[in-house]
Amino acid sequence: MTLTNDVTSPAPPGERNADELLVSGPPALNVPGVRETIRGRTRAKGTKLVVLDDDPTGSQSVQQVPVLTRWEEDDVKWAFSQPSDVFFVLTNTRSLDESETAALLRDVLTTLDVVASQLGQGYAVLSRSDSTLRGHFPLETDVIAGFAADHGHPYDAVMITPAYLEAGRVTTGDVHYARSGDLFVPVGSTDYAADATFGFRGSNLRDYVEEKTAGRVKAEDVVSLTIEDIRLGGPSRVAEILTACHDETPVIVNAVLEADLEVVALGALNAEEAGTAILYRTGPSFVPVRAGLVRRPPVTHGQIFGGRNRPGHGLVVVGSHVDLTGRQLERLLELPGMIRVELDVPGVLDAARRDAILNDTAQVLMEALRGSDVVLVTSRNRVTGKTASSSLAIARQVSASLVALVKRVRAQSDVSWVIAKGGITSSDVATAGLGVRRANVLGQLFPGVVSVWITENSEGQGHDEGLPYVVFAGNVGDDTSLAEAVSILRGDRDA
């Protein structure tokens, strides 16, 4: 078969049978020892992979990896000093507007560059974002690429790899899909595409790039690493395509299986060693592959707590509003000994009523925590604004209210563990609610999803040190996953 790189966009895609899609195309190419090879070559170069994560959920594909929520020079030095070949910097830019995002990224990049120069440490930047295409694209890659160019290191290719295989997010024929039961649904047809802030239309990633760049990059100018390129051509074909790129050429990565990502990562490494500069914009699955991390089994209750009991009860904070979260919440509340405390969203959006509502909710929350595990949940009728920016402002005010409640709990109550549901929620609860600056990703509660952080240090009360903090994305798992996560943390069942 002739290897081609067809630039013709197909007709709007439809749903596909999951079993059919997963076995379509040429057989997967499995490269023996590929992750060990990638890790060894990366270490030989003395390069650390720095993942700029636009919300905390990107860490749900890695284990034994440091996470920073702040980036003062001492924090970055600590991260560079850890034995891991990769670390995450939680930027939480998905909760920010465009100007704030650009300023924050430049600040992070400046600190990274200063510290790396001081230490003589090489590093590569990976921009981690949502596997359902929500986020500041192309703004984030533009800022990173601009910073690199200003420092004499322009990028040749911007590799777009949104796959999150464990959660059913795959790309084939340049179309990105999200699994729903026995079907793969084009992502532009899902409720994720209707996001009030980051909505989009295109499921074909060529069209998505043209749409999000407002026509600056045309669909026909986007390069594709096809399934045929990857499985028939292998790493050499991937490297051939990448080395032909220049001036930040967008490159779509098709991937249905981990083996596809492994071939791409090895080919990308070959291209980099040949002098091609690649900026990665990815979903969660590519991160451990590019870092050469070997998959580990889910963590257990015993591993999380290390045989030690922590005082207090557990707290679940739910801010996500996607349909899946609603179903998971229903199943969670079927567990015995779980009390629901609701935050009145319309009330906290009313400045005249906000303080009174927060005071009343805090009292109910702390009283409930004295005797049981508690789920703090925003009222389920979602409130949005007339524009993307006003919707984002509403989301930030709601998140600030959740944070204020968590801070009061932290100051006055013992908490054994915390689960935060939703990307913005999990970031704000960690940084502003619990005061976490540094943490280590212990692992996941389920294969490839739902990370457990162990806090490295926190501001304020000492009982937050070593706190198990569970980062639970709004769009992963099945209907029972949130209840199962609580059961594992309680010790009612193991992973």
Description:
The protein has 495 residues and is of the alpha/beta class. The chain has two domains: 16-291, Putative sugar-binding, N-terminal domain (Rossmann fold, 3-Layer(aba) Sandwich); 301-490, Molybdenum Cofactor Biosythetic Enzyme, Chain A. The chain has helices spanning 18-23, 34-45, 73-81, 98-119, 139-150, 205-212, 227-243, 258-273, 286-291, 301-305, 323-332, 345-348, 351-369, 388-412, 423-433, 481-490; strands spanning 16-17, 47-53, 65-68, 86-90, 122-128, 157-161, 169-172, 175-180, 183-186, 223-225, 249-253, 278-282, 313-318, 338-343, 373-378, 415-421, 436-446, 449-458, 468-472. It has a 15-stranded mixed β-sheet, with helices on both faces. Strands 1-9-8-7 form a four-stranded antiparallel β-sheet. Helix 2 packs parallel to helix 8, helix 3 (73-81) packs across helix 4 and helix 4 packs parallel to helix 5 (139-150). It is globular and about 65 Å long.
